[in-house]
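Why should sequence recovery work at all? Because a backbone constrains its sequence more than one might expect. Tight turns favour small or flexible residues, buried strands favour hydrophobic ones, and helices have their own preferences. The token representation captures these environments compactly. In the example below, the structure is given first.
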């Protein structure tokens, strides 16, 4: 481009995150003959999954987390795998950092049941040891079972935990900025290890935290590891608009996704940020076949493996931990108290039940099968992706895999080539860091931003 030619806007890039939950998102995935029995704690298997995602040029792999076991009923619990049998995700992505070289590595960590110094240190370390590929999914946690592992009877109230999350985040980012990017001289001749003028002690005193600092590790290579947020309630959106680089969300239809997308971009702008700097990724679960009926058969075989007791317990869980046992299975969903877990999940499920006139039994089965699962051919799935992307319902997708490795392999070998044929998805990584691959800027330290302002 010549100096005089106007800057052409960069074409929008589709982004794909691989949400890995070995042996698969579907609760009965572990019973599928194609899955690996100990998938959740089999590092060789998880490395293979991450490498498959890397070969396909996914932006990142993501591992979710709960800090407790959600189902109290032992009989139900004894029939599910993921919640009992998975690696802690920050430890896991540290291992994956050494087994991959380009793909981003995102892990969940809770602001409700951690201290900011610990997490600032963990994610700074992860960003260094992965060469700038780390991401943190900032969650406020979900349920009472988690609270009960941290000296509390009940999970913190929704508003309070988002308030804590905002302060937690402020402390963590302040700690990451303890040292300026170029603070470490490590000069053997002069004996100066770091330039003391480039050290900033945080001295935070707030409602929830008192943290002096500094952090005992240099500023992360990305400045900040990529920040992911997945709350869709009003408080969740407000947090996302002010801090998130990537937003995971969930919408059953394009109109809902477009409304959310427009709202989040507007809130991001109102928060003084560039709306292009937040990447909106709705969930997308796929089962691919050479024909639609082949794909339908695959999903039917998978759904048949689910124990109805597990389906019902899962429904009760997502409705906010309610007791459904007192209500007839073939009757309608009763009126429910507001959830202190996921308000958006409860709202989506209740809306689905009312719209379809579903009984509790039908709803549990539908939820298990999940209307988010697109069953189709590579072309029909690519059509869906293209429609949502071009219709501004999504900047890409958080791709969920019903059972692993098959649905990841199918997506990588059948859907991604079709997206490439349409010019929608990369053929190579263009950046070294996750931020670069997501098309996001590296943020300056809060101190250099302050300094720049005071010099003006
Ligand atoms: C794709 C996705 C992944 C999530 N991963 C986690 C997780 O790993 N741990 C967790 O506690 N919550 C997780 N959540 C829940 C959200 O962080 C959030 O708590 C939930 O959506 C409720 O927020 P809301 O009440 O603001 O809607 C996830 C949500 C979505 C959509």
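From this structural description, the recovered sequence reads:
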């Amino acid at each position: 481009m010549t100096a005089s030619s106007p800057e052409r806007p960069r074409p929008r890039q589709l982004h794909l995150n691989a949400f890995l939950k070995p042996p698969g998102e579907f609760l009965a995935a572990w019973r599928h003959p194609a899955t690996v029995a100990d998938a959740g704690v089999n590092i060789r298997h998880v490395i293979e999954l991450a490498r498959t995602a890397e070969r396909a040029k996914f932006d990142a792999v993501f591992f979710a987390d709960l800090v407790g076991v959600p189902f109290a009923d032992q009989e139900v619990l004894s029939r599910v795998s993921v919640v009992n049998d998975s690696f802690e995700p920050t430890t896991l992505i540290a291992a994956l950092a050494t087994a991959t070289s380009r793909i981003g590595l995102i892990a969940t960590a809770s602001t409700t049941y951690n201290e900011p110094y610990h997490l600032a240190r963990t994610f700074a370390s992860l960003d260094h040891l992965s060469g700038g590929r780390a991401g943190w999914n900032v969650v406020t946690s979900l349920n009472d079972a988690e609270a009960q592992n941290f000296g509390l009877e009940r999970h913190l109230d929704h508003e309070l935990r988002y308030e804590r999350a905002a302060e937690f985040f402020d402390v963590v980012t302040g700690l990451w900025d303890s040292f300026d990017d170029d603070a470490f001289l490590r000069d053997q001749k002069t004996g100066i290890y770091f330039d003391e003028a480039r050290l900033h002690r945080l001295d935070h005193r707030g409602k929830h935290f008192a943290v002096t600092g500094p952090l005992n590790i240099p500023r992360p290579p990305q400045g900040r590891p990529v920040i992911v947020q997945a709350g869709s309630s009003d408080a969740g959106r407000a947090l996302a608009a002010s801090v998130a680089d990537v937003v995971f969300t969930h919408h059953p239809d394009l109109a809902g996704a477009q409304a959310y997308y427009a709202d989040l971009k507007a809130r991001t702008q109102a928060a003084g940020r560039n709306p292009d700097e937040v990447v909106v990724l709705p969930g997308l679960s796929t089962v691919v076949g050479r024909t639609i009926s082949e794909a339908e058969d695959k999903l039917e075989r998978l759904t048949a493996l689910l124990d109805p007791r597990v389906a019902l317990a899962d429904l009760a869980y997502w409705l906010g931990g309610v007791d459904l046992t007192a209500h007839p299975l073939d009757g309608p969903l009763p009126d429910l108290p507001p959830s202190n877990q996921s308000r958006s999940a409860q709202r989506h499920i209740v809306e689905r039940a009312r719209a379809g006139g579903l009984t509790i039994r039908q709803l549990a089965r539908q939820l298990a099968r999940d209307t988010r699962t697109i069953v189709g051919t590579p072309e029909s799935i690519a059509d869906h992706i293209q429609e949502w992307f071009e219709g501004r319902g999504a900047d890409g997708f958080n791709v969920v895999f019903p059972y692993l490795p098959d649905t990841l392999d199918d997506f990588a070998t059948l859907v991604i080539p079709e997206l490439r044929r349409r010019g929608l998805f990369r053929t190579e990584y263009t950046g070294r860091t996750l931020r670069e691959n997501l098309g996001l800027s590296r943020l300056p330290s809060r101190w250099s931003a302050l300094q720049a302002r005071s010099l003006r």
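A few observations help interpret the result. The CA atoms of residues 204 and 210 lie 5 Å apart.
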